[in-house]
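Notes from the pairing session

We agreed to fold both candidates in a single pass and log them together. This is the raw record for the first candidate, unedited. Please don't reformat it; downstream parsing expects exactly this layout.

Candidate A
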Amino acid sequence: MTIAEIPAEARAAVLARRRKEIDELDYRRELRRLEQCGYSQRDIARWLGIAQPSVLSALRTASKVTMPLDGFSGATPYEICQRYAAGFIDRAKLVDELTRFPYVKGGQTDGYDSLIVDPAGTWSEVSDAARRGLIEDDVYEEVFNRRHGIEPDVASSHVTQAAAVQRGREVAGKNGGGELSVHGRNGLTASMGGTNNVSSVHGKDATTGRILKTGDTRRARRP
């Protein structure tokens, strides 16, 4: 759920938790940067006020951390959403970075195993962030529209999100899973995206063509 949906008394704790996760990530990256600059573990330990073995352990963990892409606040779409949820970047920066991000193709089945694990950097991370409440539905919709060149429309919808979800589930059941995009100006249609990972389901207003995000993100597997 988004921060606005959390009881007022719990928001400070939730925000602190989100910031702690990002702070830990930034700390490991800074340790990695110091090591790459040629500083010794003894120097780093002295500056941080910790034991040298603790620095060694932290550097081993830091070596596995991916550095942010040039021009972006995070290494993945999900991290960018995390930074927004923690209050480190504003909405404008979030939308800009998610729109420009060089997404990678989702995982594909080899024809024998239907279990798909997406690599880092796929669009499914944005859907996952929306499902977990790190970003609002209107942010998801705006980014989706921008990436697909769809003009925003504030007219009321004739096709509800619930209808889009239901239709998506029907198609998934008939086709054994896949990445669904439910759309169409003259009603709902559906297309399979070629993977067994349902990253998002969308409904498009039958009259206005406005994209509606369902928020139904889940793993689809063949029966």
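Candidate B (folded immediately after A)
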Amino acid sequence: MLQSSSARLLLASASNASRLLLPSLSRVALATPTRRYLHQAAATHNIDIGDHIPAGIPVFDKTPLEKIDMSKEIAGKKVLIVGVPGAFSPTCTEQTVHDYVSKLPYFMSRGFQQLIFVSVNDPYVMAAWRDSLGIPAHHANVVFLSDPKGKFVEQLGLTFDASDFMGNYRSKRFTLAVEDGMVVAKFVENDSTKCDITLPNRILDQLPGLD
């Protein structure tokens, strides 16, 4: 009988404890913040010809202290925004940056004032990549900008899942011809690990010239 009474007391104590604990756990679960990663974000509009570059999304030049609003940076200019998956990768270096920079005089003859390279890398990596290519930090016509969290390319609708080989979501390989903030031509690779549709020689003839 003593054992039976003790068992009943233990069961009652356990029941009371569970009633006190469950609401607490529920409150903790509700209070836990939900982390929002790039690939979990709500679907955004894929930018297209006639659209304007979104405002208010910071990108960075050289250091985290040099914050830039792309829409303001390109206002009144005719530029090429060139998105690449990753700094220092062979295709991005040899087939994108090298080829675009070598064709800069041809782009300028069509009225384009700047090449703006953008990647989901931190500002220091982008600066080191630029330096490794021998491009001066304050080059008037060639700019390397960092989109460290991928927010800028996410708003363009131009990201892809590179988790298996780059660890996160990255920029697609793309080129946007932009005049005073408005997209006038768009070129996006079907496979961002390759460079085909966006090769400078292929897009030069399709770029709008001076009016």
